Amino acid sequence: MKRDYSKSLRNIKLPKAGSFIFRLEAVRAGFKKAWQERDYQTILAVARNIPENVLQEDTKLLMWYDQAKIRTGDES
Q1: Which of 1, 39, 46, 54 could form a disulfide with 29 if both were Cys (CB 3.0 to 4.6 A apart)?
Q2: Do residues 33 and 6 touch, judged by C-beta distance below 8 A?
Q3: Sign of the torsion formed by the C-alpha atoms of 6, 8, 9 and 10
Q4: For the chain, domain boundaries
Q5: 14 DSSP 8-state letter
Q6: What gap in Å lies between CA 16 and CA 4, rounded to an integer?
């Protein structure tokens, strides 16, 4: 899963960022790891590139995303 998350993270940094396939389990694992490392910017960057409905329907992803926004002062 960490490999899938890393691959997704690399894809985000490419010009075609919005067009990658992801595994929800990999995104959860990556958010958890980023949260533990206090890497809130990574959580925000990944969250901006996954479909909004996926984020809204997964309580854990939404919690990490909302908390990352609060911790960074990102109100967008």
Answers
A1: 1
A2: no
A3: positive
A4: 2-13+22-72
A5: S
A6: 17
41 Cβ contact list (under 8 Å, min separation 6): 68, 72
| Cα–Cα distance measured from residue 62 to residue 54, given in angstroms and rounded to the nearest whole number | 9
Contact predicate 60/28, CB 8 Å:
yes
- The helix/strand/coil state of 34 is helix
Average pLDDT for residues 32-56, to the nearest whole number? 92
User: Tens digit of pLDDT for each residue in 8-38?
Assistant: 665 554 444 444 567 888 999 999 999 999 9
Query: Whole-angstrom Cα distance, residue 42 to residue 46?
Result: 6
Mean pLDDT confidence for 35-42: 95
Mean pLDDT of the chain: 81
> In the prediction, which pLDDT does 8 show?
62
Tokens of 18: 């919005």
